[in-house]
Amino acid sequence: MPAPDHAQLVAAMPFAELLGATAVEATPDRVVMTLTHRPELCTAGGLLHGGVLMSLADSAGALCAFLGLPEGATTATTSSHTVLLRAVRGGTLTATARVVHRGRRDVVVETELTDSDGRPVSRTTQTQAVLPPRG
């Protein structure tokens, strides 16, 4: 079975697509997504909204968890912890998600966001419940 292309993977997550996230690498062990700074994603002073940072991390982490599931299974985030390290005033964010633990009932993923200069912006650890196929 051929792997879906990166655009199809993001399109399967309408909110990530609405944010303008782009998948540039997607395997069951590592997902890399990018997002370009835009004024409509900002708070006062042109700072990228913290919710955007957390949403990008959640999307990359969820995709990473999902890609390693048995056919027909899905995931749901059960916990997420984000540490915000640096403000983003422009450029492109890169989210790199890696699996820390893959079990039968849950998947733990750590996602690091970096700015255009490669500096850390945030770090998110999330747990995704594995939901078996319906029916």
UniProtKB/TrEMBL annotation:
Keywords: Hydrolase
Domain of life: Bacteria
Organism: Pseudonocardia parietis
Region (Disordered): 114-135
Domain Thioesterase: 45-120
Protein name, as recorded: Uncharacterized protein (TIGR00369 family)
Record Pfam families: 4HBT
